[in-house]
Amino acid sequence: MIRFEKRPQPSRLSSLATPLLAVMATMVFGGFLFAVLGKDPVQSIVTIFWEPLFGEFAFYYRPQLLIKGAPLVLIAIGLALGFKAGVWNIGAEGQYIMGAIFGAGVGLAFYPTESFWVFPLMILAGAFGGWMWATIPAILKVKFGTNEILVSLMLVYVAEQFLASMSLGLLKNPEGFGFPGSRNLQQYASAHNTDIIAGSGMHWGVVAALIAVIFAYVLLARHRLGFAIRVTGEAPRAARFGGVNPSRLILFCLGISGMLAGLAGMFEVSGPAGQITIDFNVGYGFTAIIVAFLGRLHPIGIMFAGLLMALTYIGGDIAQSQLQLPAAAIQVFQGMLLFFLLAFDLLTNYRVRIGSSEFLT
Amino acid sequence: MTTPLLSLRGLNKAYPGVVANDDVSLEIGRGEIHALLGENGAGKSTLVKMIYGLVKPDSGAMKFSGASFAPQDPRTARAGGVGMVFQHFSLFDALTVAENIALGMENAPAMSQLAARIREVSESYGLPLLPDRIVGDLSAGEQQRVEIIRCLLQDPKLLIMDEPTSVLTPQEVSILFETLNKLRSEGTAILYISHKLEEIRTLCDTATILRLGKVVGTCVPADTTARDMAEMMVGTTLKTPKRSGSEPGEVILKLDQLSLPPASAFGMPLREISLSLRKGEILGIGGVAGNGQDELLGSLSGETRASVGMIEYKSRDMADMGPNARRKIGLLSAPEERLGHAAAPDMSLIENAMLTGATREGLEKGGMLNWSAAGDFADRIIEAFDVRTPSAANAARSLSGGNLQKFVIGREVLQRPEVFVVNQPTWGVDASAAAAIRQALLDLAKSGAALIVISQDLDELMEISDRFAALNEGRLSQPRPAIGLTVEEIGLMLGGAHDLETAHV
Fold it and tell me: In chain A, is it the N or the C terminus that has fewer CB atoms within a 10 Å radius of its CB?
């Protein structure tokens, strides 16, 4: 009989090994899934993981890695700070949308004035938009004890309606021949989030993501606030005893994750996406949840996890076009990653024992 | 010669890195109350778990009524006639007494029949209990009665009791003893685990003493002094803490009509608690668990805030001060629950040293934490309080309860508190470590600090306090000088016997 025995100390080795194990298991079972769909499993896996980095068109895909990875990392860093404290912001997608609307809105308000100050103002507005949207569930939780998971998630759908209304109404391009969607910010130099080095994919959002990684690392390792976050997640009563104010911590965690998600939305709308449209959001806010856990809620881990997730996105696109794999199969593949990670996570805190059963109370 | 009811021969049980039971043999006859003595970690729990079928021995044999006995699980043990009352109750607060009892039975009868049976058993054993009361509303003593009746309904031949009196008032204890004596006269054997040696001397017929998993002796408790038994348990001579006897100084902490609403549905409110605490004195607060101890500590530590005018420390009002602001000016505390309240279980001792030491030990500067200073502080605690751990980097949950307790107390004592509030300072700590902790508390008072020691161990309170008060239903009795208080007086202060009556023998 197989039993799980709680370890006296969480194992450091398995905490590092589980993400790798999870990736490998995903490859094996994903390959099996692709085989059932009638595709060559090895070729599918190679297409997803190898083509974007070293294939024939890698010069195009490599910058894409940064473009898709940056918003994931930026959002996941914020989410991880909350998750570590036991504050579950599931609505980053909505905060991402609100950041984009606020950022683009400020940019479009200045159109066509060319000034150095337009872009910094848009950054502030984007951060504010996301922060505000996340502060709604925070205040409701602190004041009335509502569940932040439900409120933040439901606000995603409100934000989506708001996005539709904006692209059809207030922010609609007056010279757009009646098509929905705002002006394209890529064609407005002061508001355009350009590549810092042309063709590298390295836009200001990538810089922001790197700063966020470093900031979060220092915060968690060295700062009182990061310590408060960790203790609250581990033992809320001990945190209170240690002087942590739970309400303030909830406001901070939701606020900062909303702010980072808002920034991600703002960098996306002013750069790779270019404009506010009805289908502007593509699920970065939800995928970032996987990224945060895949990266063990650790800033450096999240950076690698974000890049890995971006790789499966890009590789998945290639597999769709070259091998005619259905999009749903790619999503299942990405979901498997989180599933296996959580399953292998058991090994960090438990040890597997095979042998006769024994009851312990 | 009659065969003993239960006989254990050469039982062994090892866990990775530790031998819990090493060649343990003992015999219990019918109608015998047999005490099992030993420090924490001596192997008492493992032994009774083997008898109750929770743990299987590695080798050795058990015989019950002369027949070979090897219970696979608690169910077979119960079917064979072994009942056990655990120290920690496994009851559902929101259910009634009868529902709780039905949940623990294999073939629960209809609720009305069961209620009648409960009334019958509670009548004849002097354990009054109404089957339709909600468990959450019962006192700890009454909850224990639910557990005992649950066992008695199965007609056990052997009843195992793990520290049954730790939650009872003296009056409740004497009533429990009446019940146990009645069971003894009916031929039921009782295996009785306790740290309270005086109790064992009055109640038990024989005692087996365990140390480090081995039987180190047996004795007839009535003919042996408590000190001799304690020294057999510890293996060395005991040091009795020395009292300072210094004169108390000026008033440093004052509570004036401190009242707080309960934190949860089954919580206890604090009702108009007034006291003044002087420098250099130890105020002992006794009481049965759940009568407002946690709430009182929380209001002093700053976890819950009282209104303006209720708590005054060094002539400053504490209403808007949080835990760290209070620490800064010398008001420190140590809660009862070690894992999850006083310490974060999965965090290292270094991180746990940071948890309360950051402000006073200068481990933090402008929000940035100095981990190497925290490491030094943790090492100092480990050194000064003899905390047994491989290193300060070990997780708090990997330490034994007693060692973690030493760490938690040491962490606060080394921060030189001016007022130190502690709840259950030696709960679950072995005799020699408990003596060391009590000595540290006495030394602290001698150096001029004022202490409030909340405890359920009355012997401990009598040993160290200058004044004694009791918490009952969230009310604090008038503090009285501890010297000269009799057990009866203390019992009455604790709120009497909670409507108990003795067994109809």
Answer: N
Q: Which residue of A has its CA nearest to B341?
A: A238
Which residues 303-322 of B are in CB contact (within 8 Å) with A?
303, 322
For residue B237, the model assigns a pLDDT of 65
Shortest Cα–Cα distance, A19 to chain B (Å): 21
Cβ contact, residue pair B358, A225, below 8 Å: no
Residue A183, class by beta-carbon neighbours within 10 Å (0-12 exposed, 13-18 middle, 19+ buried)? Answer: buried
User: B251-493: CATH homologous superfamily?
Assistant: P-loop containing nucleotide triphosphate hydrolases (3.40.50.300)
B-chain residues near A358 (CB < 8 A): 55-56
**Which residue in chain A is spatially nearest to B397 when comparing CA positions?**
A8
Query: A8 and B398: CB-CB below 8 Å?
Result: yes
Q: Which residues of B touch A356 (CB under 8 A)?
A: 56
Closest C-alpha among B493, B420, B407, B497 to residue B454: B420
More confident residue, A9 or A86: A86
Give me the pLDDT at residue A100, please. 97
B344 and A231: CB-CB below 8 Å?
yes
Higher pLDDT, A252 or B165: A252
Nearest neighbour of B323 by CB, restricted to A230, A241, A360: A241
Residues 6+ apart with CB under 8 A from B11: B21, B23, B24, B25, B47, B50, B57, B59, B60, B61, B62
Most B-contacting residue of A225, A229, A241, A356 (CB-CB within 10 A), to test interface: A241
- Identify the architecture of domain A40-324 in CATH: Orthogonal Bundle (1.10)
One-letter amino acid at A277 equals T
User: Would you say A39 and A268 are in contact if contact means Cβ atoms under 8 Å apart?
Assistant: no
% of chain B beyond a pLDDT of 70: 94
Residue ranges with strand state E in chain A:
2-6, 350-354
B343 interface with A at CB cutoff 8 Å? yes
Q: In sequence order, which residues have a C-beta less than 8 Å from that of residue A355 and are 6 or more positions away?
A: A1, A3
Does B367 contact A358 at a Cβ distance shorter than 8 Å?
no
pLDDT at A106 over 80: yes
Q: How confident is the model at residue B499 (pLDDT cuts 50, 70, 90)?
A: very low
Question: What is chain A's Cα-based Rg?
Answer: 22
Token pair, residue B434, equals: 């408990």
Chain B residue numbers with beta carbons less than 8 Å from the beta carbon of A9 are 394-395, 398
Contact yes or no for A133/A91 (Cβ under 8 A): yes
Q: Among the residues of A91-234, which ranges form H helices? A: 92-110, 118-144, 148-168, 204-222, 224-234
As a whole number of Å, the end-to-end CA separation of chain A is 18
Higher pLDDT, A103 or A361: A103
Domain coordinates in residue numbering, chain A? 1-39+347-361, 40-324
Distance CA B244, CA B502 (A): 41
Q: Do B369 and A224 touch (CB under 8 A)?
A: yes
Residues with Cβ < 8 Å from B389, sequence gap 6 or more?
Answer: B349, B382, B398, B399, B403, B407
* Between B72 and A150, residue with greater pLDDT: A150
- Transcribe B308-375 into DSSP letters: TTSEEETTEE-TT--HHHHHHTTEEEE-S-TBTTTB-TTSBHHHHHHHHHTTTTT-EETTEE-HHHHH
The string of pLDDT tens digits covering residues A164-192 is 999 998 999 888 888 888 999 989 888 88
- Report ipTM for this prediction: 0.84
What ranges do the domains of chain B cover?
6-234, 251-493
Which chain B residues are Cβ-neighbours of A230 within 8 angstroms?
347, 351
Whole-model pTM over 0.80: no
CB contact under 8 A, A8 and B335: no
Domains B6-234 and B251-493 share a fold: yes
CA A91, CA B140: separation in Å to the nearest integer? 44
Q: Which two tokens stand for residue A303?
A: 């950076």
Instruction: Inform me whether the pLDDT recorded for A359 exceeds 70.
Output: no
